[in-house]
Each structure stands twice: as structure tokens, then as C-alpha cells.
Amino acid sequence: MTMAKKVSIYHNPKCSKSRQTLALLEEQGVTPEVILYLQSPPSAKRVTEIVDMLGIEPHDLLRKKEAPYKELGLTPSSSKAAIAKAINQHPILLERPVVVVGKKAAIGRPPENVLEIL
After folding, report:
1. For residue 1, what pLDDT is reported?
2. Whole-Å CA distances, 102 to 32, 39, 117
3. pTM for the structure as a whole
4. What local confidence, expressed as pLDDT, does residue 4 receive?
5. How far apart, in whole angstroms, are the C-alpha atoms of residue 85 and residue 99?
6. Residues of the chain with pLDDT under 70
7. Which end of the chain, N or C, is more open, meaning fewer C-beta atoms within 10 Å of its C-beta?
């Protein structure tokens, strides 16, 4: 018997893309662990792991229109550690939704992006 990989979604129920991505996972027969990251933000270490799994620049995981982005003076040259700490302290900065499957991750923008890692 093979063990199915655990699927997690960093979810904001107020975000339409997040809701669409969650619905898409459920349509695929996947019941993910739903992490309401605004209530329980990922640790800075976890943010760093997610950036590595996504294979993106840390800056690409940020929502640049949110107030803390400007307040913290974040830029494309901000260090991974600074960005991870900022997301941990201000989870609204996390680009959403992020789906993690095993050692892979995808940002659900568009929601279909996550199908590649299932």
C-alpha cells in the first residue's frame, strides 16, 4: 500500500484564488491540510523551505501591495532571511495560496499551477 503524499494549502478564505485552488484540489480527490496562515503564520524557517521548494526568488513570494511591504522597506534585493522573517511577522505578505506536496510547492496563481505538483 503506497502512502499518499500529504498536501497542505496555505489558505486565506477571503481570497478568491485561494478558494478556487482549494476547490480544485478537492475536485482532484485531494483533502489537503488547510493552514489558515493569517491566524497561524509559518515560521521563518518554514517560509525559507517553501521558497526553496518553489524554486523562486524569495521576493516573488511577497504580496507587494500590502502595507507592511513598504513599511519594512522590502525590495527585490532583500535577503531570504529578511523576507522569511517579514512573512512570519506579517503573514498578510505571503503570496497566496501556496500548496505544498511532499518536497514540492506551487503558488495557486492561477489555481491550475498546483496540478503540476499533485
Report:
1. 40
2. 12, 23, 9
3. 0.94
4. 64
5. 20
6. 1-4
7. N
- For residue 32, give the nearest of 94, 88, 109, 105 by alpha carbon: 105
Could you list the active site residues? Answer: 15
- Residue 66, all three cell numbers: 500590502
117: cell is 505538483
Residue with cell 518536497: 103
Distant-in-sequence, close-in-space partners of 109: CB < 8 Å, separation ≥ 6: 17, 95
Please name each of the domains of the chain with its CATH number: 1-37+96-118 (3.40.30.10), 42-93 (no CATH)
Cβ count near 27 (within 10 Å): 8
Residue with cell 506536496: 101
DSSP state of 105: E
